[in-house]
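Notes from hallway chat w/ T.B., transcribed later so I don't forget. T.B. wanted the structure written out for a chain they're using in a teaching module, and asked if we could keep both sequence and structure tokens in one place. Agreed to drop them here.
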Amino acid sequence: MKRLVLTCALALSAASLSASAQAQGTIRGAERGAEDGNRAAGPVGGVVGGAVGAATGTVGGVLGVDPDARREERREERIERRTVRERDAR
């Protein structure tokens, strides 16, 4: 009986931990996907990107994949390169 209770408790704790990771990944993934999709293809891209981002974020959250830490840094580099090219074109 003790072994059964211990097994059930272990299974439930593992399920609750993965569910919380999944929820965090889902929200973050949906936000990123909608932002990137909207920028690339307008409102329709935002809807599709949000759905795909949520699915990707869910899988990443369950597997424990670390979110992209250098994303903002690369975005700033792209903006800087674009600004330099625009300035050189004048």
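Follow-up for T.B.: The chain has a mean pLDDT of 76. Might be a good example for the class.
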